């Protein structure tokens, strides 16, 4: 039997403005900034993580804010849309909230579900859907009470450049099950209750270009370090080319590009974001891996100040 991932661990995207990103994902969407650190490969740039109260796997969206980044183009070989799941009966609240912040929305149907589609300030495509599955969030911020808060990922729409190849990897490597087909979409489901529903767009489209407003990679869950090593062997034996295991401080990671051009990561659930901060202080301080601590003063000097703040629309 093939290995089976529980679903999405995290999704990572490029944006331009760090404060604007904090205002949108915490101020508007009500997510918790659970980690403020740097891009380990480019320490002059933040790496910001947003999720539920603890940054649970299946809730985490992360960003590299490059102030002078080119504008990207969403297209083939990328995650096209990131799907968030909210509690049943709350879509009306979210439509009203997005309208209050003058964020245009579109209402669409797919696989008998209603989606509220919108974009973030850089054009990253997002959508909300109601589902029973998934533990309720315990986090509230600004005008978003915990009982109406985003639970985490519902899943994603993948814009594959070769949908048959992507489907084979999802089924035969990642262990998802194809559960439906509707119009240009094939639907796959993982075993978890968040980040578990993946739609693959089979329609042809131009290849995307990386840059602000695009997803860099989608990461899938491994239970622990032992399972992670098993995943790496499994991916390699499947004819793909995983990287060595990389220590990302809050999880270990391997990366590979599947046949449809999308960059996949497999990340461990532990150790998590309380690895270097107390749970009640997550995201409050700039956290650096030990090998960058001696350069902290220079790193801080090159980073723009940011704060999590209640926005005017919620302060009225």
Structure description:
With 316 residues, the protein is α+β, with helices and mostly antiparallel strands. It has helices at residues 18-28, 91-100, 163-173, 225-237, 296-301, 312-315; strands at residues 8-15, 32-39, 42-51, 60-65, 78-86, 106-110, 113-119, 125-130, 152-159, 177-182, 185-189, 197-201, 214-222, 246-247, 252-257, 263-268. An eight-stranded mixed beta sheet has the order 2-3-4-1-13-16-15-14. The radius of gyration is 19 Å and the shape is globular. It starts with 7 loop residues before the first strand and ends with a helix. The relative contact order is 0.22. GO terms for molecular function: dioxygenase activity. This is Putative ring-cleaving dioxygenase MhqO. It comes from Paenibacillus baekrokdamisoli. Keywords: Dioxygenase, Oxidoreductase.
* Helicity level: 10-25%
Which class best fits the helix and strand makeup? alpha+beta
User: What is the domain total for the residues?
Assistant: 1
Q: Oligomer, anyone?
A: single chain
For the record, the CATH architecture stands as: Roll
Q: How many H/I helical runs? A: 6
CATH homologous superfamily designation: 2,3-Dihydroxybiphenyl 1,2-Dioxygenase, domain 1
What percent strand?
A: 25-35%
Main sheet summary: 8 strands, mixed
Rg for CA atoms: 19 Å
CATH fold title: 2,3-Dihydroxybiphenyl 1,2-Dioxygenase, domain 1
Name the overall outline: globular
Name of the level-1 CATH class: Alpha Beta
DSSP, total strands: 16
Span of the ends, CA to CA = 56 Å
Order of helices and strands: EHEEEEHEEEEHEEEEHEEEHH
Which stretches are poorly predicted, pLDDT < 50 over at least 5 residues?
none
- Strand order of the biggest β-sheet: 2-3-4-1-13-16-15-14
Mean residue pLDDT: 97
